[in-house]
Amino acid sequence: MNGKAEKLIILDRDGVINEDRDDYVKSRDEWVPIPNSLEAIALLSQAGYILTIATNQSGIARGYYSISELNAMHQKMIDLLKPLGGKIDSIFFCPHVDEDHCECRKPKPGLMREIAQRYLKNTGSTELPLINIPIVGDSLRDLVAGTQLGASPHLVRTGKGMKIKEKDLPKNTQIHSDLMAFAEFMLSTK
Length: 190
Description:
This protein is α/β, with parallel strands linked by helices. It has helices at 3-6, 37-46, 67-81, 110-119, 140-147, 179-188, and strands spanning 8-11, 50-56, 90-94, 134-137, 152-156, 174-176.
């Protein structure tokens, strides 16, 4: 594995970094960070990790918000991270609904393949290009999308994470109370 691969972390967005909503996060104003999530990203950034987001955003296809509003939400996150010394390297999103049968909507692995193509070009592994790359999510679909390509699953108990039964989790899933607990885990195993 090259050095870049050892430092890559894939994060879900809603329910991991920001508060999730049953009626969708539809605007910059509705995008509210979970306590300590931005500080956790800052700690990981300062430790040299490359952080990328993989997020389903079907609200676009449903007409709840536009791509420009999604970009405004992400700009808010980036702006809030800057003074903390944190950054997100890239954001991959699926704008589709299940009925579109696309390959990028989690739990399908399309977004994960795109991430692997961007960051892990020289790993030599074509079957499991994300082997041992941490993927952090609050839902089974987040974790399944990554584990199909070998990612190491990490469930946070924020967002929808409290509802998931341990017996349903992919094998070897690590469980953390929130993104800060995950960050502390990563830094303690470094």
